Please model this.
Amino acid sequence: MSIENSKIMHREYPMKRRYVFPCSENRGYTKFTILSYVIITLLVFSSSIGVWAKAPETAKIAFMSKRDGNAEIYSMNSDGSDQINLTQHPAADYNPTWSPNGKQILFSSDRDGIFDLYLMDPDGTNVRRVFKSSKYRMEAAWSPDGKRIAYAQGDPGKAILQFGMRFVPYADLTLCVAAVNGDSVEKLTDGFNPSWSPDGREIAFVVGGRKGTPLGIFDLQRRSRKILLLKEMPWTLGPSWSRDDKIAFAKLEGAAFDAQGFLRFNKGTIHTIDSVGGNLHQVTDENSYSPTWSPDGSELIYNARVGFSQIFKIDLNGGDPTQLTHDGSNSSPDWFDPTLSVSPSAQLLTTMWGKIKTD
Model:
């Protein structure tokens, strides 16, 4: 249920109970009725936005799996154990990402007819749509303070049937930011695959258009973007920004857009770089993509082709990759650790710059 459906919840649970106590006069009756209404309304609304949700007590990885034939959101321990289907819904659910405090998971789903952004509690309950109006929205990322989200938005009229679902091609997506309740929407630039900097001042993303998919950085203060390694790596995917200011991403080989605007490539390899474009380092040799940092920045989880797509973990200090999933096709991992969850900082950027545009 979406946030705006709190009105529907009010209709389902009418706040008109009257509490009358024996007394000679009905003094305070009106005040008590109004106060009861306000308290119960706040409790219902708080439940609808996940205020009372509980974060996991141990490190968890959320990911997408098609092991049962449908795209579902799963969670597992950081060693690959205890894999649980959270969504269990006939719609297609993709791209889960943990809130900084671990109390919510943001994901994409076509359960209302078109891919849009939804929130749920860590146990898969309390599902609600983020935005009041339905549009094509995918691949969201949380700001470090948990107040905003960045995501890719597309024109539903450009959605094309692929793999039994309707997707807007990467070439036609726009990078946007909004408040976590769906308000204050702002369109930034052509692009997708967003990842926030640790201080909330910049967003790493993949530059949109049909001439390539280079790695970009959007500066939220200056309202400008820069492109990294355009000549060396014109085709990239899936940047992920670590807490110590490194960016992991996939370099694509044999990449091109097809006639419909969908990205095709032969192979991907994981690399890391600093936020100004230096210290380039290759992490994997096998066909791999969609890297995500561990909360402490010492490991990466990513997708690799082993028959189907599977999720692997690698220690950046040395050692061989560890395969975490084995059944079906699995992808889009995101890692939360309660011992290293992000707390809001006074230095985090929490205001919008420039003209706010409607969605």
